[in-house]
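Amino acid chain:
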Amino acid sequence: MNLAQMNNYTERLYSELFNPDNFPIVISKENVNGLINKRIDEHWLTYDDFLKTILRVASANGDNELIVMEDFERVFKSTGKTIRLHKTLPFDWDLLSNLLEVNDMISFLIFDKSCSWCAWFNENYWCLFCGDEQYELIDDEYKSLQSAKDAFPESDREFFDFIENLYVRR
């Protein structure tokens, strides 16, 4: 995948699902739902989280590939070359888990070619964005606003606003 294709995916995800540049109100459209989960230690995502969220949302599309891609571009000072770390892989927990353990990405997206859902990962947490029908497939424990707030007791008002905006049904 070349840089232009990656940028096209990013533009589509940001216009149809969420845009982190609009923090704390990141959801882009009506009928898009969000949730947040705190990163635990060095693990971006647990197997249980994967099964109860991303697997359920992605399976609704029938796509058999995941795209994992940084949400920013790297520019090498020595060469001026611009890249984005990325990987397309079969929909497989072991492959995804291995990639998440060994990659150099600090903020990235996971989605499929439909762009009807997206998981956004950064240093401290990850969010999942999807439409109403896909959201209904997610395990209920991830849909609790109070649980989400309780996971981030150190948060300031702006971050709590961000969390609340994720859980507002549109």
Remarks:
- Residues 3-162 form one domain.
- The chain has a mean pLDDT of 93.
